[in-house]
Amino acid sequence: MNGAGTFASVPIIDVAGLFSGDPVGRKAIANEIGRAAGDVGFFYIGGTGFDFRRYDDLLTVARRFFALPYAEKMRSYIGFSRCHRGYVPQGEEGVFEGRADLKEVFDSALDLPADDPDYLAGNPMLGPNVWPAIPGFAQRVTAYYDAVLGIGRKLLGAFAVALGEEPDRFLRHARKPPSQLRLNHYRYDPAAGDGWVSGEHTDYECFTLLTATGPGLEILGGDGTWIDVPPVPGTFVVNIGDLMELWTNGEFVATTHRVRRVPGERYSFPLFFCVDYDTVIRPLPRFHRPGRPIRRPLRAGEHVFAQTAQTFRYLRNRMDLGDLRLPEGALGVGSFGYDAVPAH
Ligand SMILES: O=C(O)CCC(=O)C(=O)O
Ligand SMILES: [Fe+2]
């Protein structure tokens, strides 16, 4: 935790130059991205060239899926998958204080064949997706995933440049990463009062690229106040996750965030950009600074899985039964992010 100061707003960065051939322009944008990643841990990116019809298409099939009867959705239940794919009913996932989030989710990730060697070897995050029987669902989820992953690769290169590293410093570890795309559905409940529908947390991976249908996302400022991060048309919200915070020894910060209840139904689509499962993440030597303890290394996929296992009911049950153990040296939830005390 770098004890970052206060920030009043979340910057919007036009990243079009990252996709052009001009190295000077690319460096300037990378530096802007690096500043936002260090000061706030959250920023918007525009100018990505992303065709937002892919977002509309994804939203259409997400609506269709979540409108199915519960029993039908449960045919894709995540607990049936051996690599954490499928439907997450409300009550399945909870981050803090034992209270479950008030949302339902569909989880997908890199879609590997059933004979993938890591899957066959029992890797808990790598393997095939689960697809519900909705026409176009698999195609639209995949089209969105591939396009946004491509933008993520550009960003990962820009982070390296901003940090003074070789452009492929992180990218060379992103060959077969278990990056997840989540479809979050927050149902509208007129009887419910104020409060949050997704508890405060940091994201576990390198960084997240998010689209959403409306406001509700809030991030924790260094002074303990919550700041609104509503969607801005034509942009993605980007936020730093635990692994990038670790790699930079706290130079980039995995900012704590949560989702507030809003008067209406809400969908959001975070893509959590990860690196390869077995990548050992240890703080880069340039961030070994006086007064900043050097954090312990973690394996990328093991960290993501350990956090997941502590927050999903079906995995906690397996641990209770002794069928599953947390990886050696796994951290508890909430081990990253600002040290600020939240003002509730
Ligand atoms: O719904 C949102 O805007 C954010 C969701 C989120 O933070 C998450 O899924 O990790
Ligand atoms: Fe999140």
Automatic annotation (TrEMBL):
<protein>
    <submittedName>
        <fullName>2OG-Fe(II) oxygenase</fullName>
    </submittedName>
</protein>
<dbReference type="Pfam" id="PF14226">
    <property type="entry name" value="DIOX_N"/>
</dbReference>
<dbReference type="GO" id="GO:0046872">
    <property type="term" value="F:metal ion binding"/>
</dbReference>
<keyword id="KW-0408">Iron</keyword>
<feature type="domain" description="Fe2OG dioxygenase">
    <location>
        <begin position="177"/>
        <end position="275"/>
    </location>
</feature>
<dbReference type="InterPro" id="IPR005123">
    <property type="entry name" value="Oxoglu/Fe-dep_dioxygenase_dom"/>
</dbReference>
<keyword id="KW-0560">Oxidoreductase</keyword>
<dbReference type="InterPro" id="IPR027443">
    <property type="entry name" value="IPNS-like_sf"/>
</dbReference>
<dbReference type="GO" id="GO:0016491">
    <property type="term" value="F:oxidoreductase activity"/>
</dbReference>
<dbReference type="InterPro" id="IPR026992">
    <property type="entry name" value="DIOX_N"/>
</dbReference>
<comment type="pathway">
    <text>Antibiotic biosynthesis.</text>
</comment>
<dbReference type="InterPro" id="IPR044861">
    <property type="entry name" value="IPNS-like_FE2OG_OXY"/>
</dbReference>
<comment type="similarity">
    <text>Belongs to the iron/ascorbate-dependent oxidoreductase family.</text>
</comment>
<keyword id="KW-0479">Metal-binding</keyword>
<dbReference type="Pfam" id="PF03171">
    <property type="entry name" value="2OG-FeII_Oxy"/>
</dbReference>
<keyword id="KW-0045">Antibiotic biosynthesis</keyword>
<dbReference type="GO" id="GO:0017000">
    <property type="term" value="P:antibiotic biosynthetic process"/>
</dbReference>
